[in-house]
Design brief:
The complex is a heterodimer. By secondary structure, chain A is α+β, with helices and mostly antiparallel strands. Chain A folds into five domains: 71 residues, no CATH class; 192 residues, no CATH class; 185 residues, no CATH class; 178 residues, no CATH class; 205 residues, no CATH class. The two termini of chain A are 63 Å apart. Helix content of chain B is 56%, strand content 14%. In chain B, strands 1-3-2 form a three-stranded antiparallel sheet. The chains are: A alpha+beta, B alpha+beta. Chains A and B meet through helix 1, helix 2 and helix 4 of A and helix 2, helix 3 and strand 3 of B.
Chain lengths: 902, 114
């Protein structure tokens, strides 16, 4: 209590210090006056009376000093004074200050920016109330080969809904597109289909209107739709009267019941939200195409929920009929298990590793920057040795001097941090504006208090980090003797440079680690680029998705004829060499894969065994020609195959090899999709493998069906066509203005109410599939470039300094007949020695550290000898150059000048 | 430690006692009083009194106000607060105890310690 009160008083008087000084002086004055008066009375002369009084009082200044120390906050005062001194000193050396601040700003800024990204993507919770209780529901099925995970089937939805004990809310969703006609140009916004419970689980209240109720889920009730904020703003200008109005969606009128607020986020960034309706009476066990989302009851752990789902799986397996044509034992042998995980994990995906690797490398860059700054500070402290020695001689304690030095480095750290924060802010603005869509939660990225604290922490920490080295050297016990050496240029002992040499070795080692990291990414990129993806010149392939609304044509053959007509119109556009049509383009697996069990007639599966799932795609003639995918054996589909509904199929080379050993052997064999009514189809051709999930993933085995077929799975007698498909146009005009408009016009000239969406080029999809690699590559390359430059500057600095310190010695050596080459060699050797030491340390560190990024590599191991050798060689050459340039100065020294320069 | 070098704690106690006995007093008055009683203890550095006064004031044991001195000059008068009185009592007690212990300790003869 007492100490607290004293502190309060101290604070108050600190604020009012000037007046207090005045009062103290008055008080002392009075004291002395009274003593003088008493002395006079005792019979002393006026002069002597005053003198005695002053003597008796003692040193006024010392008292004032103690008084002041006691009164204010001396720590704060000296801190303020030191800071002012530091700033003044830094202003006097603008070049030094600018270099240090810029170096630090780059390091701190880069780290702050990437931390802000990590913070918003990985650390901050999802923008939902109590987001940690949200889980997504996945299943394992170790009995089904080739399927790592399964989502939910509609029958699971009913079972979980009714039987669960751990979910507060639960629902399933799927995403896709829905056409909107009659408002402006026909379009197909991204749509989210949700059952009752999904939005309730997420817990974000609508901005206007209401959520879906259980009634909206029931088949046969009124058709409804919700809009998300972005679409509502873009399409309806934020007009709230849209709620209650009717939109034509997929050719059917739907009433708008609500608008979601701006902060609502969901996978794949939906624009429309539509109710997902299942007819209970027609559900089977299968159909795992729906994402499951649940909000756990308070206090329920993921483990408990997993156990609950595992229990319900047992119920589910017996409560529903197996899909027609599939035996119940197939489902039993699949051995379904529960694998719930935090919803955030699903949204964040696999970007985490890349981000942490980037953060790690930028941390190394900051370390290198700190080492560089420490070196600069050493030089500066060396120049200030005399001043420091004088301060010590005048009575400044070691601690006081250390504090002054530390305050200077902290000031530099903070200034660097402030500039760095500015840089980070700009960088993030650019990232948010131009960043890849593949970066999850991109719109959430920004600088928040956590990031500010991080930047401040990093700035202070680096201040301490590069500050302690000069302190250890110059505020040490030898400070009083330091003055002796100043002003005369001795040939220095090795010891004197130890600190600087160590710093440079560390810098070089770190730079090597960074260079190897980026080298490995470059090799990965090369390896990826050298994989033949199964298509050629993707930059020439324009991709447009389009959909025939059911109101226009429903009969499969009519649908196909319309699409055929569109293909002909597209092919007639000047500059177009080839056109194709299919259910989906390569590398569009983000739209959701189409995996189905495929059976071969001559490879029967034992009853109850689960055939592996294969990718299926439906295509029209010309698809492969347009993509540049070679037909390895047999032939492509023909239009006759389609219109005459021949039962034909194509397979990918890897599927042919797996089943029949060679592409040719597959021709004439018959396959089918396991379903109630799918007939056997004869393989007429084998095409080369297409890396459909990106070149870093093994190409999936494919079965290709014709775009128009007779009975497909459900055995519709009228046949089956693709309503919503993809047009691929190969042309060297893809990037020119107007080409897209011509293509759109061609589609609309056939059918004016057909939405065109998901417009892209195959090239863009290809780049997108490598986005993580190229992002990491670019970041690492920048980091490594910075590291290399800073490392070289470090070596250069040391050698240049050594040369300048040894001018006198060089003069003597030259006078005694030393050859220029020998002198040059002497310094270059020293530089090389430092580089070599750094390289050895760096190689060892890299061997350990690069293992952390092995999941980002492709076609190259973390200890790739080529990269290690090439990078080491590069570094040695750079080191040699960095020491050669300053060393050249040594041989131009005129011995007479050098000796006279004392 | 020189004999004249009065430690702060002792000095503080003296200040409190002086104010307790004489009522409100200015710095010079306190100094003179302590000097009179303690003989030559405070002759060297009267100034050291002031930091002690400040500390006591900050702790709330004494309060100060400007007033007129005997010869009508402006002076700062210190007086004991209630808390200061309590502190004085507590410290006087503990001082007496310490003094008693020390006294007994020094009075002890070799045979008493056996």
């Amino acid at each position: 209590m007492k100490t607290l009160r004293r502190l309060l008083h101290r604070l108050i008087s600190w604020a009012t210090s000037a007046r207090d000084d005045e009062l103290l002086r008055a008080e002392i004055e009075e004291h002395i006056a009274m003593q003088t008066a008493d002395n006079l009375r005792a019979g002393l002369s006026p002069v002597e009376a005053r003198r005695q009084a002053v003597l008796k009082f003692g040193s006024v200044e010392a008292i004032k000093e103690t008084y002041r120390d006691q009164r204010g906050l001396p720590f704060l005062e000296t801190l303020g004074r030191d800071t002012r001194d530091a700033l003044r000193g830094l202003r006097r050396a603008p070049a030094f200050t600018a270099t240090v601040i810029l170096t630090l700003a780059l390091g701190i800024g880069a780290n702050t920016a990437i931390f802000a990204v990590i913070d918003s993507i990985l650390i901050r919770p999802l923008p939902y109330p109590e987001a940690e209780a949200l889980v997504s529901i996945w299943h394992t099925a170790p009995g089904v080969p080739g399927v790592p995970e399964l989502a939910c089937s509609p029958s699971m939805y009913f079972t979980y809904r009714e039987e669960n004990r751990t979910f507060q809310q639960f629902g399933v969703w799927s995403s896709g597109g829905a056409s909107v006609t009659g408002v402006a140009d026909p379009e197909q916004p991204r749509a989210l289909f949700v059952t009752y419970g999904v939005l309730d689980a997420v817990g974000v209240k609508p901005l206007v209107g209401r959520w879906f109720s259980q009634a909206d889920d029931t088949p046969g009730s009124a058709e409804t739709v919700m809009l998300t904020y972005g679409y509502w703003q873009r399409r309806f200008g934020g007009d709230t009267s849209i709620v209650g109005r009717t939109l034509t969606i997929d050719s059917r009128p739907r009433t708008v019941i609500g608008i979601m607020p701006e902060e609502f986020r969901f996978q794949r960034d939906p624009e429309l939200i539509l109710p997902l309706r299942f007819d209970r009476t027609t559900q089977f066990l299968g159909g795992f195409g729906h994402g499951g989302i649940a909000r756990l009851k308070a206090g329920v752990t993921i483990e408990q929920a997993n156990a609950d789902v595992a229990r319900m799986l047992g119920v589910w397996l017996n409560a529903w009929p197996p899909d027609p044509g599939i035996d119940r034992t197939v489902f039993q042998n699949a051995r379904f298990g529960s694998r719930l995980r935090a919803l955030k994990q699903d949204i964040v995906g696999t970007i985490g590793t890349a981000l942490w690797v980037v953060m790690g490398t930028l941390g190394l860059v900051l370390l290198i920057a700190c080492a560089n700054v420490a070196n600069l500070l050493l030089v500066r402290a060396e120049g200030h040795q005399q001043e420091l020695a004088i301060r010590a001689a005048l009575g400044a304690g070691r601690r006081r001097i250390a504090r002054a030095l530390l305050v200077e480095s902290m000031t530099l750290g903070l200034l660097g941090g402030a500039v760095g924060l500015g840089m980070a802010y700009v960088a993030l603005q650019i990232l948010v504006a131009k960043g890849p869509d593949t970066l999850p939660r991109l719109r959430d990225i920004g600088i928040d208090p956590v990031v500010l604290v991080f930047a401040l922490g990093v700035a202070l920490l680096s201040g301490v980090l590069f500050g302690v080295i000069p302190i250890a050297k110059y505020a040490g016990p030898r400070i009083a003797t330091a003055r002796r050496g100043v002003g005369r240029t001795f040939s220095d002992g090795r010891e004197r440079h130890r600190a600087r040499n160590t710093l440079v070795v560390v810098q070089v080692a770190l730079a090597l680690v960074l260079l190897i990291g980026s080298g490995l990414m470059i090799r990965t990129f090369q390896q990826l680029r050298s994989v033949h993806p199964g298509f050629t010149q993707p930059e020439e392939i324009q991709i447009l998705h389009s959909m025939v609304p059911m109101a226009i044509a429903e009969e499969p053959e009519r649908v196909m004829r319309m699409q055929h007509e569109i293909l002909d119109k597209l092919a007639a556009i000047p500059g177009v060499t080839s056109v194709g049509f299919g259910s989906r383009a390569p590398l569009e697996s983000f739209l959701g894969g189409n995996f189905n069990p495929i059976d071969a007639e001559d490879k029967p599966f034992a009853k109850g065994r689960v055939p592996p799932l294969r990718q299926t795609r439906r295509i029209a003639p010309g698809y492969f020609k347009t993509m540049g995918t070679r037909v390895v054996a047999g032939r492509d589909f023909s239009w006759t195959d389609l219109y005459d509904k021949h039962r034909v199929a194509l397979v990918s080379e890897n599927l042919a090899r797996e089943w029949w050993g060679a592409p040719d052997a597959a021709l004439g064999k018959r396959i089918r999709e396991i379903g109630p009514a799918d007939p056997w189809r004869e393989i007429v051709g084998v095409v080369e493998n297409v890396y459909d999930d990106g070149v870093h993933v093994k190409p999936p085995a494919f079965a290709y069906w014709p775009a128009l077929m007779d009975r497909y799975i459900w055995g519709d007698e009228n046949g089956s066509a693709i309503m919503s498909g993809m047009f691929a146009i190969r042309s060297n005009r893809t990037r020119t203005e107007g080409f897209l408009a011509e293509a759109q016009q061609a589609i609309w000239s056939v059918n004016g109410r057909q939405p065109v969406f998901l417009v892209t080029t195959l090239d863009a999809l290809y780049d997108q599939s490598m986005a993580r690699t190229s992002f990491t590559l670019v970041m690492l390359a920048i980091a490594a470039g910075m590291g290399l430059v800073l490392g070289i500057v470090g070596i250069y600095g040391v050698i240049a300094y050594v040369v300048s310190q040894r001018i006198r010695e060089i003069g003597i050596r030259t006078a005694l007949g030393a050859q220029p080459a020998g002198l040059l060699g002497m310094f270059v050797r020293q530089g090389l020695w430092l580089t070599g030491m750094g390289a050895v340390l760096g190689l060892a560190a890299a061997a350990g550290l690069t293992r952390l990024m092995s999941s980002l590599l492709f076609g190259v191991t973390a200890i790739d000898p080529v990269t290690y050798t090439a990078v080491s060689a590069l570094l040695i050459v750079a080191g040699m150059l960095a020491s050669y340039l300053p060393a050249r100065r040594a041989i131009t020294v005129d011995p007479v000048q050098a000796l006279r320069a004392e | 430690m020189k004999d004249t070098d009065v430690r702060q704690g002792t000095l503080a106690l003296m200040v409190l006692k002086t104010l307790d006995v004489l009522g409100p007093l200015h710095g010079y008055g306190i100094a003179r009083r302590i000097e009179q009683i303690s003989g030559d203890l405070l002759t060297v550095n009267q100034g050291t009194l002031y930091p002690v006064l400040l500390k006591l004031e900050q702790e709330g044991s004494i309060a100060a106000a400007w007033g007129a001195s005997e010869n009508n000059r402006k002076a700062r008068f210190y007086r004991l607060t209630r808390q200061g009185r309590k502190q004085l009592q507590a410290e006087a007690r503990s001082w007496e105890q310490t003094a008693a212990i020390i006294e007994r300790f020094f009075a002890a003869k070799a045979q008493d310690l056996k």
